[in-house]
Amino acid sequence: MLNRVKLDTMPPLDGLVYRLVVAVDVEGYSKLDALDQSLVQSRLGEVLDLAAHDAGLDRSHWYRQVRGDGELAVLPADADTAWVVAHLTERLAANLADLRRAGTPLRMRVAMHCGTLTAGRFGLVGDAPIVTCRLLDAGAARRELAAASTDLVLVISERLFDDVVRTRFHDLDPTRFRATRFRAKGTWYSGYLCPGPPRRG
Question: From which domain of life does this come (predicted)?
Answer without folding.
Answer: Bacteria
